[in-house]
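Sample A.
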Amino acid sequence: MKNITDSFVYVGHWPYAGSFEFNTDILATNPINLSVVLGVLIFFGKGVLNDLLDKRKQRILSTIRNSEELRRGAIEQLERARARLRKVEMEADEYRLNGYSEIEREKINLINATCDSLERLENYKNETLLFEQQRAVNQVRQQVFQQALQGALRTLNSCLNSELHFRTISANIGILGSVEEITD
């Protein structure tokens, strides 16, 4: 059996350039063809392959840089949002505390205003009661006076006769006469 390296080393075994024949030795021809194709690809394709790989590398690096910039921007936005959230939470706590104290102040003011209103109503009620008592006392006095006057008139009318009436008139005329003399 022939050695594969024999076909590379023994150049004299190859046919001359003027003749054409098929080489049926598969083990001898394939490695040569493959080595020639790979040599040509490496020699000519090296620059193209390097360019393609460099472009791909640049795209990957620019994508990584863009991603890093986007990540930094997102982190900055997140920090700003967290700072705003902390600020809003502090303001909410402040409003809540102020709101509670404001509610307590309003509650105390409402209680004080209600107490004042109740006190005024109590005073008004007392004044109204006093006024009504005085009015009732005055009405009772008037009624008692009228009844006393009517009783006195009835008593006088029942007790007075014409002789007593004549004597009373004479006594009054005498009193008036003495008063006239004194004034003269």
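Sample B.
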Amino acid sequence: FGDLQFGVELLIPDTLDYIALRSMMIRPDEFLEASDTIYDLLNGYIWMGDDIEKVDTPLLEAEFAKINKPAPTAKAKIDTLHFTSSDTALGKIAIQVGLGRQAYGSCKDCRKNLKAIKKCEAFMAIVGEPEIKYEVDV
């Protein structure tokens, strides 16, 4: 579809605090050159995005297939669409605190979604839900 936007934020697993950011625009003819970096940044880590299951993951897999390389795999995925489309108390709180409302495809949006997840945690603590352990629960 043209240029690809790739962005990764590295986080501390037990707190979800930000460590580093890598963001780049990749032209289709540059994907092979960037593929090793992308693989190393993603493989075996937790991925987060809005509708990541239906949009981002298949696109990533297709790009790697085009260059005959194995695609990275996620340790786990946080798809904000699941939070915002559910009719659960957590889903309703997620919408109220802004989860998934950002424009598609930027690290800034992921940062906003992480803040919304932390707000959800605070609300759930108020209503007596058990403490969230990010490295286990997320």
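B remarks: The CA atoms of residues 54 and 79 lie 10 Å apart. DSSP finds six helices and four strands in the chain.
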